[in-house]
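Sample 3 of the quickstart, ligand fe (ii) ion:
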Amino acid sequence: MINYSEKIPNNVDLGRDRILQRALEHWQPAFLGWWYDMGPTESRTYDVYLRTAISVEPDGWAQFDYVKMPDYRWGIFLQPRDEQRQVSFGTHKGQPAWQEVPGEYRSTLRRIIVTQGDTEPASVEQQKMLGLSCPSLYDLRNIFQVNVEEGRHLWAMVYLLHRYFGRDGREEAEALLARRSGDTDNPRILGAFNEPTPDWLAFYMFTFFTDRDGKFQLCALAESGFDPLSRTCRFMLTEEAHHMFVGETGVGRIIQRTCEVMKEHNVEDPSDVRALGVIDLQTIQKYLNFHYSVTLDLYGSDVSSNAANYFTSGLKGRFRETKLEDDHVLADASYPVSEVLDGKIITKNIPALTALNERLRDDYIDEIADGVSRWQRVIDQAGISFRLTLPHKGFHREIGNFAGHFISIDGQVLLEEAWKKHEFEWLPSSKDYEFVQSLMTGRVAEPGKFANWIAPPLRGINNNPLNFEYVRFN
Ligand SMILES: [Fe+2]
Ligand SMILES: [Fe+2]
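Result:
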């Protein structure tokens, strides 16, 4: 269970670690200050029907109730320790998992934790304004749930910094509250977390694509030989699942509504579809292309000696490391990686250790493809011939082997000029953004009502009906 009697709810016996407790209590007001500044606009007094973690056991850890978001019990929840756990990969394979930071890996580990931690407040900042244009109370409650949990993920990383990294850790924890998404002087660390999330279609795409990057990074860190990081990430993953659910069903419901309207009025031309107040499938495809490509960049360079070091050192594993059947050392293994050579995309085998970013990206792509095929089913079931597709991996990339090349949506290497000619057939134009924005001018706040451009979900939250008052504005 989680101890809620303390100022900072936790299951790490915080009350017995005075130094850590003082550090975190010092950080807490700064966090709240950040939340007031950068959390959801105008939401301070709302009562939101939120899920709060009360236990870290896999079954029944959550409790639902109305909460004012600034009163949300952010805290420190780690998966229980497995005393037998060992480092399961790299050169330390077979040693007992580390309970303290190995000195030689201190700065690398700190960097990994800071980079993960930085994404958490970033997405809250990116989504700050969306509450003002929500398509329903159900959706409003969901975005707020995502936001408070991203806040808690920040707490999770800050706990590790405070507990294991002394003064530099405390400084990094402060810097996490100082950077701002999209800021020119002090931006967030990773590119996708500085992109705007201007509307709800972008939000659902973000939670489907970019929160899923979060899942894959957390899965890789959950394999870490540094046990406190592993246990922290394991619990974060239980929260992440909901974020991806919000994204997948959100996009799915938009597609469903568009298809319904197309069928009802027997229209297919995008401008006719738009005239009926729903988002045309072509625009949905362009948003998909954008979010997919910027998220692929988050995995880093295809060939990376850092990735090799993280693995060899036992700090960051592969997706489902312990379930994989190989030697977990990879000294002799190879892995296929693509690159552009003489105007063509070629694939070659490189040492598997340096290809670990690419491998994680490929695991991610597999899961993304499954989700996209579930969206496709909605279109197929409506009897519409449109096909949603994933762009080529090299399309619109800024990091790795494809950076600096102009790859078309279907994997042709183009000259810049030719690529630019097609740019807005593939990516949303400012006109497309304007159109989507025009549908989302105000908030739909009547219980049970949904904006015209999105279908209601199949069921409500925690078995409540769709017309439940998920948010009270007071
Ligand atoms: Fe997160
Ligand atoms: Fe998330």
